[in-house]
Amino acid sequence: MLAREGEREKVGDKPVKYHGKWPFRRVYGIQVEPVAVALSALNLSIQFHGWMSFFILLYYKLPLRPDKKTYYEYTGLWHIYGILAMNSWFWSAVFHSRDVELTEKLDCSSAVALLGFNFILAILRAFSVRDEAARVMVAAPLIAFVTTHILYLNFYKLDHGLNMKVCLAMGVAQLLIWAIWAGVTRHPSRWKLWLVVVGEGLAMLLQIYDFPPYRGFVDAHALYHAANIPLTYLWWSFIRDDSEFRTTALLKKPK
Ligand SMILES: [Zn+2]
Known about the structure:
73% of the residues lie in helices and 2% in strands. It has 8 helices and 2 strands. The chain has helices at 2-10, 34-61, 75-97, 101-126, 132-155, 160-184, 190-208, 220-252; strands spanning 26-27, 30-31. Helix 3 runs antiparallel to helix 4 and helix 7 (190-208) runs antiparallel to helix 8 (220-252). It has a two-stranded antiparallel ribbon. With 255 residues, it is mostly helical. The longest helix is centred in the C-terminal third of the chain and has 33 residues, at 220-252. The chain has one domain (34-252): Rhopdopsin 7-helix transmembrane proteins (Up-down Bundle), CATH 1.20.1070. Zinc ion is lined by residues 36, 92, 96, 221, 225. Residues 36, 92, 96, 221, 225 line the site of zinc ion. Belongs to the PGAP3 family. Its main location: Golgi.
């Protein structure tokens, strides 16, 4: 691939994609994207840091109910989010260092699972769905859809075009939900929500209009990984604010 790219460059041709991927430099004989690997690892550690800070705030700093449960109604959902996000960055790091079919499927499936769960989370939080039965009614069809999609990708056809459409639809839908909520809510940290929505929107554009790797290392996808670092930091900051905000609101309410 890279030899061909060298020839193309000499005659003044622009880089092309091979099997839907840009040609990257080979390090130690294997096709690696060192920048994407490093950024995935960094994202994983930022996620872990965010999740830990949320955990410490809820269980050690904010008051707990007599049964040792948190007052905040979305604790469990954010725990699942943290685990799915860390899982997704882990497989992203693995995939960008060993690009084979198995790692590609694992990376892709984890990313879809995270995106699907984020969509459920957006609906539940923005519409303040607290009732268990109502939550199941929202989540069940979406979980069924996402599971079917993942099984299709893994065992029928790893269709990148179709996957792009599904991910884009779920991504745009949840950004709209958060944006509308940020517009109407009087949440004290709604500006953080706004920043994340705008940032995620821009990051999504990077996913769609990808450009060839700069010097064989940094492409649009790596840049997308980089954009996620400040966004993740801000997102966990919003989650912590939200848990504090809801806990204070619940404690103020006369019993
Ligand atoms: Zn990636």
